[in-house]
Amino acid sequence: MVHVRIKREDCTACSTCWETCPEVFEENRDDSFSQIREEFRSGGGISEGEVPESLKGCVEEAAALCPVQIISLTNE
Question: Is this model's pTM higher than 0.90 or not?
């Protein structure tokens, strides 16, 4: 599994992550910032999650393209 974290307080709601990797990221309807899709959330929050290795490339691409570099991932 790959641990994903979004530093939401620095998100600019540019849509890059959810357009690049919609399997993992989505727009929060309340504040328009990025969040982890419910099926991958961990710890009860919307900014952290665990995704399978099969989605690692997608998350890495979204992290690399993020203009404010707020997405981090680590192997668990």
Answer: yes
